[in-house]
Fold Cellulase family glycosylhydrolase.
Amino acid sequence: MGMARLRRRLVDLVVLVCAVGLLAAVGPNGPTGGSGSGPWHERFITDAQGRALILYGLNTSDSAKNSADGMPWIKQSDVAAEYHALGTDFVRYLIQWSRVEPSPGVFDRHYLAEVAQRVAWYKAQGYLVLLDMHQDEYGAAVGGDGAPAWATDGGSSPSAATKGPWTAAYTQPAVVHAFDEFWGTRPDHPEYQQQYAAAWTAVAEYFVGNDAVLGYDLMNDPWGGSVQGPAFETGPLAAFYRRTIAAVRSVDANHWLFVEPAAISAGSSLPSALPRLDDPRHGGARIGYAPHLYPQPLDDGGSYTGSTAFLTDRFLASWTIQVERTARRMDAPVLLGEWGLDTSGDGAHLYIDKVQTVLDQMMVGGAMWSSDPGPWSPWTKPGVEAPIAAVIATAYPRAIAGTPVSFMYDKSTLALTVSWKDAPGVTGSTDVYLPPGDFPNGGDVEVNGNGTPVTAWNARTRILSVTVPAQSGLTHTLTVTPASLKQN
């Protein structure tokens, strides 16, 4: 079959399966399915005190893919400006295999040191950093980025410019051939995957003691080449994850390891067949699930208005169900690795509000794409906030001192409500971020539960900390509303 025809068939298949998934998963009033009235999972990323962490931030950054030194555009002052404008606590930081391992078995410690310097910038602002081994269309030798040229066998097939959905570029013969070599579909180069695991070992060994690093996203948008669907996710992809998890765990037992579904389902509402992955570390597993979110109606250039907004909402409902099903099967907490849109389009602020609401309902965090100044960013240029920045900045719980039951920020009433159940061994306060636009004078607190709350407000960081007496099994509900203007 000709590649142009294959691309059309692939896009048609995605549309068909999405449509079938929507019909099956979404009733007239939204999501259906699930069991019980409680939370859909009780697996969360936690800190040393056992508090559940809700991580909210940006990807940094698209510019790193093609810069001369592999570094993003940011300076230390930009990281401080990001916190000041958005109140975020998390960054998904892009690194590349080609930079980590420029030659087989040779690992660039200078590059890792430059990454570590930028991690330190984020640490100074209280951020956690997820290191993401990023690739698009495999590597530069076949028209993409990520893999080094020495680990690329494109079958001597040139790549050509493509139009249409991003999936079209992945169906180029050279890109398909390169992925087939990497996954072992073609058995000519088993060393490629072995060296990729070795590159992750080098990264993990370098950052093993760095407490600002949350963990590692093992591969961005894994693409199956000529093998797709469940055959890819349960076969080559699962085997790759097991190999890479084992390699990282040989040097780093503590950092979180995040896995993504196949690229064709990563940002869509398609089901994933990714199986549960065991963690060989002693103690509880630290394997997380990091899908993406790019609704097709918007990803094709639509704006969040009219029928496109209606279709996008249906897409989001189905996406939510598929993510929850996969996370439940994997017994893994969810962290949304990428989401975003061209914010210059009509209705962009409403879409951001919608996604924030969906994430609140799911009780998960995520990273918006991307920090690079431009239409997909909170910056028009370095240091200059775009109007959308005030929409991206939102009230949210950063750390919850127990097992989360629910949380939601209602932008119409400016009320942030957080409920949690006391859990054994969890200590410390429940901390919430209050953006200055909505809470210029901090927040008034109401807590239903046992005892009188102790509150502390940090006007510089805009963090409100609330501590309540713990009692096993008791549920607390915290409501924060804007504080009235203080009188002299």
In short: The first strand starts at residue 26 and ends at 27.
